[in-house]
């Protein structure tokens, strides 16, 4: 076996994405060829192929295909990303063509590459001068993620720089590879096709209008007049998309055109998708290879490269790839749609053996520099470079990082006289999405719980958030509305169960903790007027939110019968749900994981303490321990259940995207466990979850902007979501309030040094 070159010895395992044979298209042929070339040149290299599948179940893929990706199913891309990550592949190599990936302009591919942490390179098979908005967005997302991109023509480099602002240092030009075949005279190959005594012009490819076949057929009368033995062979099956739309009508129209021009006996159609060896035989049997393509922007043509590789005299339109590969007298170019030009040049070459043979030998010499073995070596160098230049996280060690003091600066930035806005673009509030009661309920809780705050400031914001909640109540529906537009009009007549449960929670907190008394009285009054809505709730989280509000109300008013009934009924309901969903390895209330998971055990723990129900506390500890174990990374850090985990029955959680809400829920649940049991371990677990905000997470980057109390919206596989929405800011500040209060009870819990960016 040939060893890898020493300079690339670190590359031993790659993942390769693209179409693959037996799918019939040029990308499939290319991907199959490059995989074979790499394995032939570097036998010890592991190449995992992930084939793009436009019709799952249609193709009988060979053993070389590790897995398939259903083109139009976004979840398949995410599953492939997880498989690639788990495989140990060192580099991901993508064959990029807009049309082979799902979503707008193939955007599903971006979801995949955003979820792998290994270096990515891409070979770009189409580079557009005038991309659509979606095409531009997808291409530029790909360029940002790739360590290197490969183009097969220098024109591709120029377009990437001019149109997309690409970094020239990240672009590598590697010409399309060609097989290694000996030069043979066409006459030696013609008998196997029955072409003896004919001068053969060949065009190959999936039959479609952009191939320009009409141009050559229109040129045939003049060619035949000069060389009566001329035969134009159109080799290739009709493009599958065209067949699906109109069957073989296009081929029939071409045949009719040949008959109309009087050259039906000089035009032959071979309706077949031939493998590479058969194609090379056809090419070697031809005298001239013609590519009358009509698309000037075509960056690559595999068959043009193959034709040059076996030493064919080529006559072509001046599309990008042809212009570059046929430069310096390696072929002949004529104008797009120029039948007269094709007739003139083909006549000249067919009637002059010397001119044709001279052009053939020059083409063959060029082809020697493009062999697949050379392609494999150049690509391996790019793969090695990508691995070498893989960026490293820059971290610094700082002194033991104490919990942050609660700070409402970012909350105020996101709020106006109506309430707290939902979303932001970076740190700038986005008015397009308006407000929601979820965030205003959380903001009310924060203003009631934060300790050191100017009374005038507290009074102002409690009044604004309380007013939003008051206005949200819809007495006709007996529900709170949730979403409000920026113009203060409601988007709905009643909000979700979760938003209603969360609002009752906020009212309970305000009734217990708000200062001065006027706000406690208001909260108690609205709670009493609305809390019966809780008795109709069926969502486990909505019940948990209502339970948290009920425990607060009981703390303020121990005889509050409705709150006691809610705690008893919902607590028993949660235990019943646990019994139904439980498996030996699954101690959870639902068969899936979702958001705010730790709120469920927290509600049981707080209800158990309020009602003195030991069974509630025991179940709360059991389920909190279970979810805790699933939110710890191998390095011992908190790892929030990622949003991609949601809705997967009895499945272990996935790491991304991680949201600040989950860390806050875990902090609060651990606080509840400590309050119920006095076990110091839960203080340590609360700090583990809190440190996630500070940088003790999978990416080792802080989510906090400590100078203004801001918090980024989450951890993506490739870094931070740098928006700072209301939910994220409030999650940090409420978690800081809990940790601040907990530290006073449990002592110094700051813990060891933390790496922060």
What does this structure look like?
The chain is an alpha/beta fold. The protein contains 27 helices and 24 strands. The chain has a 7-stranded parallel sheet, with helices on both faces. Helix 19 packs parallel to helix 21 (540-556), helix 21 (540-556) runs parallel beside helix 23 (599-611) and helix 23 (599-611) runs parallel beside helix 25. The two termini are 45 Å apart. 51% of the residues are buried.
Helices, strands, pairings?
Blueprint: E1 13-18, H1 26-41, E2 46-53, E3 65-70, H2 74-87, E4 91-96, H3 108-113, E5 120-124, H4 133-145, E6 148-151, H5 154-164, E7 171-173, H6 186-189, E8 199-204, H7 213-226, E9 230-235, H8 240-246, H9 249-260, E10 267-270, H10 276-285, E11 288-291, H11 302-309, E12 313-316, H12 320-325, E13 332-333, H13 339-351, H14 353-367, H15 372-388, E14 396-397, H16 409-413, E15 421-425, E16 428-436, H17 437-449, H18 455-472, E17 473-474, E18 479-480, E19 483-484, H19 497-513, H20 517-530, H21 540-556, H22 561-581, H23 599-611, H24 614-629, H25 660-677, H26 681-694, E20 704-705, E21 710-711, E22 714-716, E23 719-721, H27 726-746, E24 755-756
Parallel strand pairs: 1-2, 1-4, 2-3, 4-5, 5-6, 6-7, 8-9, 8-11, 9-10, 11-12, 12-13
Antiparallel strand pairs: 14-24, 15-16, 16-19, 17-18, 20-21, 22-23
């Amino acid at each position: 076996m040939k060893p890898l070159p020493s300079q690339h010895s670190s590359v031993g395992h790659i993942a390769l994405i693209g179409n693959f044979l037996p799918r019939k298209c040029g990308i499939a042929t290319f991907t199959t060829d490059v995989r074979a070339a790499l394995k032939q040149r570097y036998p010890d290299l592991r190449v995992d192929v992930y084939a793009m599948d436009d019709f799952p179940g249609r193709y009988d893929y060979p053993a070389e295909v590790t897995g398939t990706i259903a083109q139009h199913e976004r979840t398949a891309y995410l599953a492939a990303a997880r498989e690639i990550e788990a495989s140990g592949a060192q580099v991901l190599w993508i064959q990029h063509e807009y049309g082979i990936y799902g979503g707008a302009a193939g955007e599903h591919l971006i979801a995949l590459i955003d979820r792998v942490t290994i270096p990515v390179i891409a070979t770009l098979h189409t580079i557009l001068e005038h991309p659509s908005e979606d095409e531009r967005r997808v291409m530029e997302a790909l360029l940002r993620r790739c360590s290197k991109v490969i183009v097969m023509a220098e024109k591709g480099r120029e377009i990437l720089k001019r149109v997309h602002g690409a970094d020239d240092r990240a672009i590598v030009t590697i010409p399309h590879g060609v097989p290694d075949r000996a030069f043979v005279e066409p006459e030696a190959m013609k008998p196997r096709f029955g072409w003896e005594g004919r001068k053969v012009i060949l065009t190959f490819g999936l039959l479609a209008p952009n191939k320009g076949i009409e141009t050559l057929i229109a040129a045939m009368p003049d060619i035949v007049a000069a060389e009566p033995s001329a035969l134009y062979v159109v080799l290739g099956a009709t493009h599958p998309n065209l067949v699906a739309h109109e069957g073989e009508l296009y081929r029939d129209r071409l045949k009719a055109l040949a008959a109309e021009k009087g050259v039906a006996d000089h035009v032959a159609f071979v309706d077949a998708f031939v493998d590479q060896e058969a194609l090379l035989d056809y090419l070697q049997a031809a005298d001239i290879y013609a590519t009358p393509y009509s698309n000037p922007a075509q960056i690559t043509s595999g068959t043009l490269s193959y034709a040059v590789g076996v030493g064919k005299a080529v006559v072509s339109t001046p599309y990008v790839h042809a212009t570059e590969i046929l430069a310096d007298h390696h072929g002949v170019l004529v104008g797009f749609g120029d039948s007269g030009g094709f007739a003139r040049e083909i006549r000249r070459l067919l009637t002059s053996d010397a001119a044709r043979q001279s052009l053939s030998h020059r083409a063959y010499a060029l082809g020697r520099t493009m062999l697949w073995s050379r392609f494999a070596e150049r690509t391996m160098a790019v793969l090695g470079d990508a691995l070498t230049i893989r960026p490293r996280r820059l971290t610094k060690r700082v002194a033991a990082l104490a919990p942050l003091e609660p700070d409402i600066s970012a909350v105020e930035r996101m709020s106006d006289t109506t309430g707290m806005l939902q979303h932001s673009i970076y740190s700038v509030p986005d008015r397009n999405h308006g407000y929601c009661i979820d965030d205003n309920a959380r903001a009310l809780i924060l203003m009631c719980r934060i300790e050191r705050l100017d009374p005038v400031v507290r009074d102002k914001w409690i009044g604004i958030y309380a007013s939003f909640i008051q206005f949200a109540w819809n007495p006709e529906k007996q529900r709170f509305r949730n979403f409000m537009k920026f113009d203060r009009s409601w988007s709905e007549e009643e909000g979700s169960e979760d938003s209603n449960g969360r609002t009752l929670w906020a009212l309970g907190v305000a009734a217990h903790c708000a200062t001065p008394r006027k706000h406690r009285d208001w909260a108690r009054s609205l709670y009493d007027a609305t809390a019966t809505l809780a008795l109709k709730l069926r969502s486990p989280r909505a019940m948990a939110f209502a339970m948290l509000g009920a425990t607060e109300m009981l703390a303020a008013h121990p005889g509050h019968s409705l709150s006691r009934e809610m705690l008893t009924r919902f607590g028993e309901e949660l235990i019943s749900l646990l019994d139904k969903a439980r498996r030996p390895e699954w101690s959870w209330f639902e068969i899936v994981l979702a958001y705010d998971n730790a709120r469920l055990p927290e509600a049981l723990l707080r209800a158990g303490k309020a009602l003195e129900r030991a069974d509630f506390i025991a179940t709360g500890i059991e389920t909190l321990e279970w979810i805790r174990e699933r939110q710890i990374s191998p390095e011992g850090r908190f790892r929030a259940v990622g949003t991609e985990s949601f809705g997967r029955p009895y499945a272990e959680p996935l790491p991304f995207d991680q949201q600040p809400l989950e860390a806050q829920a875990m902090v609060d649940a651990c606080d509840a466990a400590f309050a119920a049991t006095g076990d110091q371990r839960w203080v340590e677990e609360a700090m583990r979850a809190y440190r996630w905000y500070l940088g003790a997470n999978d990416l080792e980057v802080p989510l906090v902007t400590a100078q203004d109390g801001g918090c980024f919206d989450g951890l993506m596989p490739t870094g931070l979501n740098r928006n700072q929405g209301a939910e994220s800011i409030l999650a940090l500040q409420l978690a800081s309030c809990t940790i601040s209060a907990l530290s006073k009870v449990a002592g110094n819990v700051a813990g060891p040094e933390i790496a922060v960016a």
